[in-house]
Design goal:
This protein is mostly helical and 96 residues long. The chain contains five helices and no strands. The chain has one domain. Helix content is 42%, strand content 0%.
């Protein structure tokens, strides 16, 4: 299950977003993109958010509002791939 970050903590795809997508969700969207791929989800984030927000994705039941907001926060805060504390990559935006 996903770890919900503190309200001002960074949101990362690897730790917070990817775990929200079940294997069933991934399989149902394979025709368009891979929901477990950072590159695919990042490139299609706005469309995915729209569908999450209107409840048409996932196809079996809408996400809880807090999951949709977490996805929106991931987009709004720079679409990080990894938690900067857990990865050697340094994001200079954090320091500024």
């Amino acid at each position: 299950m996903t770890r919900d970050p503190e309200p001002r903590a960074p949101v990362s795809f690897d730790e917070n977003i990817k775990p929200l997508f079940r294997e069933m969700d991934r399989e149902s969207m394979e025709f368009a993109f891979d929901l477990w791929s950072y590159a695919d989800v990042s490139a299609n984030a706005d469309e995915i958010l729209e569908r999450l927000g209107d409840g048409s994705m996932p196809c079996d039941h809408p996400w809880p509002a807090e999951h949709v907001e977490l996805f929106r926060r991931w987009i709004d805060t720079g679409r990080r791939e990894f938690d900067t504390d857990a990865n050697s990559k340094h994001d200079s935006r954090v320091d500024r």
